[in-house]
Design a protein that fits this description.
Number of helices: 7
Strand content: under 5%
Radius of gyration: 18 Å
Helix content: 25-40%
Structural class: mainly alpha
Number of strands: 0
Largest sheet: none
Order of helices and strands: HHHHHHH
Length: 205
């Protein structure tokens, strides 16, 4: 995965042009300084940042959020914010479960959030009449789940995804939790820059 922007006049290594290089634009791409008018991101809801979801705003900061979701999924074998029923609301519920209350005005734009959460972001008591419920979680709790799930046969090659039964060490949990927390800040400007992401000690442990 290529995570740093490349300027065509600065490509200096021939390996970047080989067929073995895999590049993803997370669904769409454009010149960052000139976003298209009436832009609507095509990012899958599981990977979309809050500003993309609520404001149709995308940029390098949104890519950091998406990259964090991808890093977790490659390491865990399951999504950070899973959507069993394929709905945007379900992903939002899991996001608040894991990261806490959305800042205003996004919290108000989260339709019917009072069905699942108190106004401070705490999950409400489970109700039997609700198919989707909220429950308190965290990045660390999700990292501790890695390796606990039973492996399920898949008809395609999953060589890029961590095998089932592989547990993380305490050291890796600490480092990956630190990295993901810095990448998944609600406020885009508070997220770690890509230059600091790739220099994070998790990549060299």
């Amino acid at each position: 995965m290529l995570v740093e922007p490349i300027q065509s006049d600065k490509i200096s290594h021939s390996s970047l042009l080989q067929e073995s290089t895999i590049i993803t634009d997370f669904g769409q791409s454009y010149v960052a300084a000139c976003p298209p008018p009436l832009f609507k991101a095509g990012t899958i809801v599981n990977y979309a940042s809050p500003e993309t979801r609520f404001e149709r705003r995308a940029g390098f900061e949104a890519d950091i959020w998406t990259l964090a979701c991808v890093i977790f999924e490659l390491r865990a074998g399951f999504s950070l914010f899973e959507s069993f029923l394929g709905g945007d609301t379900e992903v939002l519920i899991q996001t608040v479960d894991t990261l806490g209350r959305l800042p205003d005005p996004w919290w108000g734009a989260f339709a019917h959030h009072s069905h699942w959460f108190e106004e401070d972001g705490r999950p409400k008591s489970k109700r039997q009449d609700r198919l989707v419920t909220a429950h308190k979680s965290s990045i660390r709790m999700k990292l501790l789940e890695i390796g606990k799930r039973e492996g399920t046969p898949y008809p395609y090659d999953r060589s890029m995804v961590e095998k089932s039964g592989v547990r993380l060490t305490e050291e890796e949990i600490d480092l990956l939790e630190d990295l993901l927390q810095k990448m998944l800040k609600y406020i885009p400007e508070e997220r770690i820059r890509i230059q600091d992401v790739i220099r994070h000690p998790w990549f060299t442990m």
